[in-house]
Amino acid sequence: MRLNTLLSFLITVCFLAQTALAQNKTIKPDAVWKDSAGKRINAHGGCVISHGGIYYWYGEEKEKGLSEKEHADAGVHCYASSDLVNWHDQGLVLKLIKGETLSDLAFDSNHDRPKVVYNEATRKFVMFFKLYLRGKGHGVAYVGVATSDSPVGPFVYKHKFLGGGSPNGTGDFAIYKDDDGKLYHLSVRKPDKAFVIGKMRDDYLMPEGKYQICEGVTRHTEAPAIFKKDGIYHMLASGSTGWAPNPARHFTARNIYGPWKFRGNPCQGTNPHNNLGPDKTFGGQSNFVLKVDEQKDAYIAIFDINKPKHPYESAYIWLPIKFKGKDISILWQDAWSLDVFRNQ
Ligand code: DGJ
Questions:
Q1: Does the residue 32 lie in any domain?
Q2: Over the Cα atoms of the chain, what is R_g?
Q3: pLDDT, one tens digit for every residue, the chain (344 residues)
């Protein structure tokens, strides 16, 4: 048995045992979320993948006491769970280096919105993040790439690339792995803010060929999350207002390259913690949409409530997605459980 297979197996056994004892079954959007050791979960702008029966949540670790202006990113933190509710700390799987000035992993750089996918052919977990180099401002954004043999790291930084065929690169992005294993980088191009798509190489490490504009996706679309249901591609996204919330956007397409059709803002209801409703996406901005394993039509919309002055305190909103044909709705709920998918 390969070492990483053995490791995944041991993690699975360990979690199944721990989860059997765990009490918590409720997801409470915009509450303080703690891990199984009672520590605040620190994984922002991230994603959740499923591998070997375990979910892995990756997100930006924010250094306590630093604001976004002071470059709070400390690396990528990973948590693991078998039930999407009780999360076990797996530590920093990619670390920014304090004291470094020139490295792409220098502490004062920005590593935003990490996304991880598994490449079956190379047996590598591949991580992507939006990378602003230390001291170089926000005019040029790279895509940083790191790989690991195990879902719980360590991830080894490989290289960066400029997406979109632009010398300024691309900003917020989604990485979408299609049913045939092909991987796509969908992103807002800098500086013109057109929304573009590029196919990645079979090893997932670099784009191949030219990027194309996704016709129908509004310019200045940020925070994209792509998922597919019944052969239709869906994109949940936001507008472009820095760290401040704005109305969510939903698009659908039959072909991932487009044309995409705008379907409005799917959010409904009000977050009682901040009194913000659909016009501000409950105070949040989308990061990812997760398909729940072995449950038909079970998708969770994942948002962060950004707190740029105190990013360590940024909160999480996870809500189930309801479908009506190609339209979706995301209703605010103070508390919910995965049972909603069984009863739909
Ligand atoms: C909007 C992005 O969606 C956020 O993740 C973050 O990068 C901010 N911009 C920074 O202004």
A1: no
A2: 19
A3: 455 555 555 555 555 555 555 568 999 999 999 999 999 999 999 999 999 999 999 999 999 999 999 999 999 999 999 999 999 999 999 999 998 888 999 999 999 999 999 999 999 999 999 999 999 999 999 999 999 999 999 999 999 999 999 999 999 999 999 999 999 999 999 999 999 999 999 999 999 999 999 999 999 999 999 999 999 999 999 999 999 999 999 999 999 999 999 999 999 999 999 999 999 999 999 999 999 998 989 999 999 999 999 999 999 999 999 999 999 999 999 999 999 998 77
The whole model's pTM is what?
0.94
In a domain, 341, yes or no: no
* CA dist 193 → 2, 188, 260 (Å): 44, 5, 16
Distance 242 CA to ligand 1 centre (A): 5
What's the CATH code of the domain at 99? 2.115.10.20
Strands 327-331 and 267-268, by their bridges, are: parallel
CA distance 294 to 290: 12
**CA–CA separation, 170 vs 131, rounded Å?**
10
- Our answer on whether the CB atom of 113 is closer than 6 Å to any ligand 1 atom is yes
Residue 168 CA, ligand 1 centroid: distance in Å: 16
How many domains, in total, are found in the chain?
A: 1
Q: Which of 240, 285, 304 most suits a substitution to test ligand 1, by most atoms within 8 Å of the C-beta?
A: 285
Question: 285 in ligand 1 pocket by Cβ < 6 Å?
Answer: yes
Range of the domain at 45: 3-16+41-335
Distance CA 243, CA 21 (A): 38
Is the minimum distance from the CB of 242 to ligand 1 under 6 angstroms?
A: yes
Asked, for residue 124, whether it belongs to a domain, the answer is yes
Q: How far is the CA of 189 from the centre of ligand 1 (A)?
A: 14
Give me the residues paired with residue 199 across strands.
184, 208
| Domain presence at residue 26 | no
